[in-house]
Amino acid sequence: MTAKQPPSIRKEPVDQTPPIPAEEILEQAVEALDGIKAVDLVTLDVRESCGFTDYMVFASGTSNRHLKAMANEVVKALKEKGMRPINVEGEDTAQTEWVLVDFIDVVVHLMMPETRALYQLEKLWSAPAADRSS
Fold this sequence. Notes:
- It is a single chain.
- By secondary structure, the protein is an alpha+beta fold.
- Helix content is about 30%, strand content about 20%.
- A five-stranded mixed beta sheet has the order 1-2-5-4-3.
- Helix 1 crosses helix 2 (about 65-80).
């Protein structure tokens, strides 16, 4: 704190989400996606090759409505365990082709099959680290 900053006036502690192990977040996300009929569900352990998350989950949906429903189910399942996503992107777009749900330790990518084939993120994150630059 610098001399010009006033002291904090917060009298109550900040409500923080209790930490949940990444493996439990992954398990809950996969169960939620299985329950809502996600297509071609793939999980990747990226701890050795990625500095911003531990696991990535990829699944396809049959329509943009299905993508949004899948995202909502994942958020709902983890909210019941006391975990909220740091961000959800793409669910507010009418004709979305990709919804990303970010739980920090687990990032869930929900895509239309065409979008998934175009970006090939599973292939990118499965490649050895030296191959990613090419």
